[in-house]
Amino acid sequence: MSEPERLNRLRSVLIAPAVRPDFIAKLPSRGADVLFLDCEDAVPANAKAEARTVVTEWAPRLVEGGSTVVVRVNPVSSEWFADDIRNGLPHDVSAVVIPKIERLSDLDEAAAALDEVGLSRLGVFAGIETALGVADARLVLAHPRVVAAYFGAEDFVADMGGVRTEGNAEVAYARAQVALAGRLASVPLVDQVVTNFSDDARYRREATEARNLGYDGKLCIHPAQVPPANEAFTPSADEIDRARRLLAAYEASSAAGIAAIDFEGQMVDEPLAVQARRLLERVATDATAADAATGKARSTENTAR
């Protein structure tokens, strides 16, 4: 069996309730990298079956239009999980989002369920959003079925019995712990939601913090959050130019036997060179992903014609 394909372009992940086809129909125009159809928190218990029906109808349409689509099912331990996998997961989505992952056994059970319905190629977008999930994130994210992960601050704080604040002090450790685990597992990560979607300043601040921590993108619960997410996780022209110039100067110096240089008033050695290389790698990855998405959309358009 081939390994599931990882999600590499996750700057903005826009969530929509699976019971709102009116919202879902507008998703492709919002500019998000990933469209996230939610059958869990955004769907009441008495509407789970309806959510599956909407997903099976709309996800293929979105994919045919060139969008990257993921579907969040209910937790492995829930009464709805089995039906979500059997009846609410179209074969052409890019990943299944499984919330509140805590143990390797959760992922083993999910993998078995996916394999049973012929979705062995499908990877898991893991939700790390409980105390145990954060504590064991390094083990969980190393599972071969995981292709991406997100940190869920609201559920984490609820599980801890804490209080959510704008300053994020109560989630600082957990947020960094998940970032570290993702780095060790080479799994792309998406940062927490900002529930006050009218607070643009907070969203921009958190997105910058998340990028600085090593996250690859941020969850969006409103279309207005998509542009700042894309902006925060896209290196600017000035950043790209400086990284290229820094590397050129550093590599020339290294070739001459000097391992630390003064670059525009800053001491630069190998760690800073690594940071510059990673930034340029991100730019190359984003460009490749963007080209692939454009090609997919054009192919779909030509087929439709």
Helix content: 40-55%
For the secondary structure, the number of strands is 10
The secondary structure category is alpha/beta
Tally of contiguous helical segments? 12
Structural domains: how many: 2
The CATH superfamily name of the largest domain is Phosphoenolpyruvate-binding domains
CATH architecture of the largest domain: Alpha-Beta Barrel
What general form does the structure show?
Answer: globular
CATH fold call of the largest domain:
TIM Barrel
Average pLDDT metric = 92
Largest beta sheet, briefly? 8 strands, parallel, barrel
Q: What is the rounded Rg?
A: 20 Å
State the strand order across the main sheet: 1-2-3-4-5-6-7-8
Architecture overview:
There is one protein chain. This protein has 2 domains: 12-232, TIM Barrel (Alpha-Beta Barrel), CATH 3.20.20.60; 237-304, no CATH class. The chain has 305 residues and is an alpha/beta fold. Helix content is 49%, strand content 14%. The strands form 2 sheets. An 8-stranded parallel barrel has the order 1-2-3-4-5-6-7-8, surrounded by 5 helices. The mean pLDDT is 92. It is globular. The protein contains 12 helices and 10 strands. The chain has helices spanning 21-26, 48-64, 81-87, 104-116, 131-135, 137-141, 153-160, 172-185, 200-213, 226-232, 237-255, 270-304; strands at 12-17, 34-38, 69-72, 95-98, 123-128, 146-151, 189-191, 217-220, 261-263, 266-268. Helix 3 (81-87) links the parallel strand 3 (69-72) and strand 4 (95-98).
